[in-house]
Amino acid sequence: MEDQHQTAETDIPRADPLSRAKLDILMPRLHYMLLFFGLLLVFITPPLQTPDENSHLVRSIMVAEGQFFPRYDGERWGQDVPESLVQYVENHTSLMTDTSQRYSYGAWFAFSADHTPHEPRVFHSYSAQSSSPLLYLPQAAGIWAGKVLYAVSPGVFNWSAAQYFARIGNLVAFVLGIGLAIRLVPQFSSSLAFLALTPMMLSLAASTSYDVTVILVAVGYFAAIVSTIHRAEISWKHWIAIFGLSFLLGHCKMVYAPMMLALFVLFSRLGWRNFLKVAGISGVSALAGIFVGTVVFGVPSDASANATIQEQMDYVGGNLLGIPGLLLRTLGHSVDFYYVSSLGILGWLNAHFPLPVITAWFGVGLAAIVADIPKTKSREMLLFAAYSIAGAVLSVSLLMLVMYIIWTSQTVGIGASMVEGVQGRYLLPVFPFLFASAAILLSTFVPVRERVALAIVRHQLTLGAAMLSLTIFMIIIRYWVPVPA
User: Fold this and answer.
1) 441 — alpha (psi -120 to 50), left (phi > 0) or beta?
2) Is the peptide bond before 28 cis (omega within 30 degrees of 0)?
3) How far is Cα 404 from Cα 419, in angstroms, rounded to an integer?
4) For residue 426, what is the DSSP state?
5) Three-state DSSP class for 226?
6) How many CB atoms lie within 10 A of CB 478?
């Protein structure tokens, strides 16, 4: 009975020698690499220099203090934020917006040793003030850990400490989450390792951005579904994980909810009755997540913004047939920007890798897909690829449509001919599904070469270390090397 139970709980990819060999090469080396280079990025990236970090840091600190909701003062929404924190953010604004500005060791040390009091407080509005506190639990945990360490040391906990400990909390969550996902689905370990080592991904992990939580939820859902495909029996733990991740997928950003289409791969195994139960619970969980994220922690806006958004929604409703053309036109116009900004732009889109470097790293990603070509060709895996691609197309389309309604209406105007505001980093949550789908589709006409796959995985780590070393160098020359007079 014990052997039967063990067999039921062990999926085929774990027993596959190639998957196990790839896992042995990657772990724990990948953990060490992510921690090493991630910690370098935590401290060498100047304060607030990752996308929207000026807002994410304030929200992380407010969540760590238990301040979850904004309030309305009669004119606008905001929170009572320490005045010194607002000043800390303002002190780094010019660095975010002016590429000629540089940071200095003197400023770095001065802010790290600052004894500015946390009182008084001022009413302050910022973009992330209504984001769900669940998105900031890793950052808040890092801040709490920092406060404990400072309490038993001679130092005084300040906003610089909050900045770096919140980043460390995010980084630790990212490393643990990626490591768990790779262990759950070792057959796609090379692709997941490539994504984890990608400069844009790791720089977000070494920041206070909630993008890390969103990415981990998407990667977790990917791993949860893939790990069920070849199991002889799906345990209650897996179902709880799938239902919980369905809630988080809707809660973090509802535009990624279409990735739940991957769940349909289990239809033939469960039968229509059981599948309807599973799909129903997952759907209700996702809707509950959307409700909590939008209604309980919805983003309040002023009357003028609401009117503009409503006008754009009316325009979209009256021009539904033209929306596919709008999205395709935007994609064709901006695909090069999405390509570069998902792989090779750091900071506030102002620290650029040269295009040959980005393309070379993209080549490493293509090699990672080849290394992950499954040895076992199955109908379920092909269906997973089909559902994943369909979900990715719907997610990206929904993302662009939401940005058209909420962002483009404010920045360009009603009925603009292009979608504005979409960045490559927004596509990172769908990449695990797309990379795995590419590997599965390649398996139909490309034979597996184990020696080639293992060689790719070995060299992948070396190339990843080289790419991240170049990332550190780029951060230094962008932010720390003075501009010649």
Assistant:
1) alpha
2) yes
3) 5
4) G
5) helix
6) 19
Residue 4's contacts (CB-CB under 8 Å, 6 or more residues apart) are: none
Torsion of CA 195, 197, 199, 200, to 10 degrees: 30
The residues of the chain scoring below 50 in pLDDT are 1-14
Q: What is the helix (H) or strand (E) element at residue 80, kind and residue range? A: strand 77-82
pLDDT score recorded for residue 302: 64
Residue 454: C-alpha distances to residues 33, 34, 302, 415, 461 (Å): 19, 20, 56, 51, 11
Q: What is the dihedral of CA 415, 421, 423, 425, to 10 degrees?
A: -120
Classify residue 239 by burial, with Cβ atoms within 10 Å: 0-12, 13-18, 19+. middle
Closest-CA residue to 448 (of 373, 344, 342): 373
Dihedral over Cα of 350, 418, 212, 453: its sign: negative
Q: Give the span between the Cα atoms of 188 and 404, in whole angstroms.
A: 34
* Tokens 């483009």 -> residue: 408
Burial label, 74 (beta-carbon count in 10 A; 0-12, 13-18, 19+): exposed
Q: Is residue 171 within 8 Å of 38, Cβ to Cβ?
A: yes
Q: What is the pLDDT of residues 33-69, one digit of tens each?
A: 999 999 999 999 999 998 889 999 999 999 999 999 8
Global confidence as pTM: 0.92
Q: Alpha helices, DSSP H only, in 16-158?
A: 17-26, 29-44, 53-64, 83-91, 93-97, 105-112, 137-151
Q: How far apart are CA 355 and CA 331, in angstroms?
A: 19
* Structure-block tokens of residue 96: 């975010």
Q: What is the pLDDT of residue 15?
A: 52
**Residues 212, 203: Cα–Cα separation, whole Å:** 10
- Asked if 33 and 465 touch (Cβ cutoff 8 Å), the reply is yes
Residue of 331, 312, 342, 277 lying closest to 405 (CA atoms): 312
In contact, 249 and 260? CB cutoff 8 Å: yes
**Class of residue 115 by CB neighbours under 10 A (exposed 0-12, middle 13-18, buried 19+):** exposed
Q: How far is CA 360 from the centre of its chain?
A: 22
DSSP 82: E
Q: Which of 19, 96, 51, 420 is nearest to 214 (CA)?
A: 51
| Dist. CA 307–CA 160, nearest whole Å | 39
* CA end-to-end distance (rounded Å), the chain: 77
